[in-house]
Amino acid sequence: MCSDACKNRKRLLTQSLWLGGVLSFYVVFAGCDSPRTPVIENNDALLNDSVRNVTHAQSSPRDYLGAIFSRYRVAGSYRDDGRVRLKFEKEGKPSSEVAPLSVWFDPSIVYLKAYDTRLWSDRNGISAWIVDPSTHNFDSQVLRGPAVERRPKLKVLLTDLILIERIAAGLAGPPPQLEWLFADEPMKGLFEPENQFAFGLQTNIEGQPCQAIVVTSGTDKYTFWIDTQFGLVRQVDLPPVVIPNEPNQRPKTMQLSLELSGATFDPPTMSPRAESLPPKPKFVTRFVPLPPAPPISTLGSKVRGIEAMTTTVAKDSPEKPAVLAMVYVANEQSSLVSAMVLQDWYRKFPAALQTKVLPIALMEEGIADMPAETQNMLRESVTIASVIDNRNEIARSLALGPGSLVLMEMDGRVAWIQPLLTPQSLPALGTVVADVLNGVDIPGRIASQSKSDANAYKRVIATEYTKVVEMGLLKTQH
To answer: Is the pTM for the entire model greater than 0.85?
Structure first.
């Protein structure tokens, strides 16, 4: 979830991207993974001997910053090699992760690199694509759009909802350079009357003298490092990101900065080198939501030995259960919690339903190697029947992770797998149990729905390609 401070930061830095009030920007800390490159930083460029206090200036800090943004608004060209950097401690050592957040603009080309999103605009039109291996580059979709005016407005350059969400998907939000260059009123939200502006420190960034302008909004502070020679923003320090930690531990604080390396208003001497489109691109006029992931391949399969195991465990039951609910307990605390969730949930069943469902804790074979304290906790906390997974065969055959729950028919046929059992997953799980008891073929239903979703997706992609061709949007753009 996004904290109030985080929401306020994104509101200030993305004012013009709220098109008609219908868009929602997401904050995904895990979004800092696949396209980002981890680096180790042992020094801080802003903590050196060149830093000193500013004692006077020719204009107010508010007017000075406003004039800087006005410079962007009328610039004939601009480019940078921007990146957002998240600094934190890892195993007691300073570390950071970076993600691209750069803009290239001259009268004929706009090229944007924002997290895992790329956008290219020239006289032939717009192309946008996604470089995310975890989604197969968003299934190789490439958005095509008609050409825009030489200095595009944001609402014309960015019209696709999925594209805008992806551009804004990191902790720093969308590139504020877009705001500075193409918004009618750059950073309008930053200049609210209640916000305070002050001159801060001076230092050198990339060998250039820079003046800090500190903007205070409530409890948040934003520091803009201005190149006093060229009127450029070289760096923006955003309010820290606070990540909740384990109970009774201090929350982690992470520093977030936008580093605009190589920023310049100088006209380019060559075109930017854009990343290649995905292999075998699927051209569309709008990004099409991907169909749900295919169902787990083990749904509907049979696990050997389940009947013998359940017969032993359920020998004292007044009647033969119809459904086996089995949670996998490994040498991890999360799986112990999942087992407790299962047994608490089972205890709330009506008596008639309890006789039809058999809860079992499937114990990892190495559970005996757990510390004595943990084993005592396990014995005291988990009171449902437990069995050892010999050689961990069941867990391996079903690719179960710690805390996974498996619903089976009593002959061992897998009806459902919940990757991690939590209180939040119980309402949906209750529906699944009811369906199994009523004889519904859940694996078959899921497979049928998955096939239907995949076919519907293919039809939409084919329709989109036809539109692209009819609109004449398949010209080479970079």
So the answer is: no
